[in-house]
Amino acid sequence: MQATSKSLLGSRRLWFAFLAISIIAACTAFKLMSLVEPGLNVDISFSRQQALDAAASFQHEKFPDLQVERTAAGFRSDRNFQNYVELEAGGLEAYQALVTDVDANTHFWQVRSFTPGQKQELITEFSPQGVPVAFNYLIPDEETGVALSETDARAIAASGAQDFMGERFSSYIPLQAQEVRQPNGRMDYRFTYEHDSLKPGDARLRLTLRVAGNRFVAINTFKFIPQAF
Question: pTM above the 0.90 mark?
Answer without folding.
Answer: no
